[in-house]
Design goal:
There is one protein chain. The protein is mainly alpha-helical and about 60 residues long. About 45% of the residues lie in helices and about 0% in strands. The protein is built from two helices and no strands. Helix 1 runs antiparallel to helix 2. About 5% of the residues are buried.
Length: about 60
């Protein structure tokens, strides 16, 4: 059996003109948890939501979906 190599289509040229590192947003959001013990309990949800959002963005950017 012969192995045939076919080109695989990729994103159109220039469609992702700005390459950003998703880890930067994650690091910033996680750093917001550092002083969590000094904040009122009501503000914890906002901080956890920020981390969740950044993780979601980072995961969705892995395959550019």
């Amino acid at each position: 059996m012969q192995d045939h190599s076919f080109p695989v289509p990729g994103p159109p040229p220039g469609s992702f003109s700005q390459q950003t590192d998703p880890r930067a947003g994650i690091d910033e959001a996680v750093a917001g948890l550092d002083d969590l013990d000094a904040l009122p309990l009501a503000e914890h949800v906002e901080r956890f939501d920020a981390v969740h959002t950044e993780l979601t963005v980072a995961l969705s950017s892995i395959d550019k979906v």
